[in-house]
Amino acid sequence: MPETALDAAFFVRWMTEVAAVVDREARHLTDLDSAIGDADHGSNLQRGFTAVRTLLEKEPPATPGAALMAAGRTLISTVGGASGPLYGTLLRRTGKTLGDAERVDLEQLRDGLRAGVDAVGQLGGSAPGDKTMLDALDPAVTALADGFASAAEAAGQGARATVPLQARKGRASYLGERSIGHEDPGAASSALLFAALAEVAR
Amino acid sequence: MTGRAAVAGTVGIVLVSHSGPVAESVAALATGLAGAGAGAPVAPAGGTPDGGLGTSAELIAEAARSVDGGAGVALLVDLGSAVLTVKAMLAEGDELPEGARLVDAPFLEGAVAAVVTASTGADLVAVSAAAGEAYGYRKE
Predict the structure, then answer these.
(1) Nearest residue on chain B to A86, judged by CA atoms?
(2) Are β-strands B12-17 and B73-77 bridged in parallel, bridged antiparallel, or unpaired?
(3) Burial of B94 by CB count in 10 Å (0-12 exposed, 13-18 middle, 19+ buried)?
(4) Among A38, A137, A163, B6, which is disulfide-ready with B69 (CB 3.0 to 4.6 Å)?
């Protein structure tokens, strides 16, 4: 797959791969969430991305933008936790930014994801360093300039780098210093999103 | 579902909580405290459709439609995903009626203020302001 020709089918494969990876890692995500959250991150994302996979298989989207907007809408309506509106906003805003193009190149995808990540920061009122999904998403989008593998690597590093941070957003922030020493579940799942992207782009 | 259906020209109130029983109880409390003449429509949207803890965009959209009388809908929310879900729905979606608005207010006290104010026939701006003023209600 040349980088300059990412079509709707590519984005469907990406979302399908995310569903598969989240299925495999659901228990791990929930374990991370039970340390500093309410122990539902894995099962919530599993429910959400399973619904996304089902929808995209049933109603194949015509464009990359349509694929991501449908995925985002589905996450908002099915997840049931904060990750629903956050991931939903990420994908929906990215899809909206990609517009009606039938194919997008790496640079367009990067611009779209940058808009999506900005929207997530705005929605949650958070910034990198707050121990949230942004700590994986932000470096991943920056590294996407060097390709999908670099983005996945940066996302994984960003997620692991949340371990020594103190949470400043969400339920984990109530724990104060006790949130230190745990990887943020949202950053961990954001790393999976980019791992799946690198996998389908190989 | 408890609550009262839309009244033309009256601001509708939606109470979004992580818990179905919390949303229903706060709706009942606010309606009860507003008095017998209280005419504002109130709908709870708590928990997930299967009765668990969480936030459901579908329940929120359904509740908002049920109280929309054309004068706007004030959504009061408790925490975390309730806040983010309503914000996300307002930012990009088309699931909520025109004139729906997230009200920055404490959940319970704000709900009482909103229902009382809406029942006087006040507009959405006044209802939102009254709910927000509940932040200033000190208890010590």
Answers:
(1) B84
(2) parallel
(3) exposed
(4) B6
> What contacts A176, CB < 8 A, 6 or more positions away?
A166
Average pLDDT value for chain A: 95
Q: Is B80 on the interface with A (CB under 8 A)?
A: yes
The ipTM assigned to this model is 0.85
Q: Mind listing the pLDDT tens digit for each residue in B40-95?
A: 999 999 999 999 999 999 999 999 999 999 999 999 999 989 999 999 999 877 88
How far apart are the C-alpha atoms of A117 and A134, rounded to whole Å?
Answer: 7
Q: Does B55 touch chain A (CB under 8 A)?
A: yes
pLDDT band at A118 (very low <50, low <70, confident <90, very high): very high
Q: Is residue B78 part of a domain?
A: yes
Strands A103-104, A6-7: pairing is: antiparallel
Range of the domain at B29: 12-122
Domain A6-201 adopts which CATH fold? 1.25.40
CB-CB neighbors (< 8 A) of A93 in chain B: 92
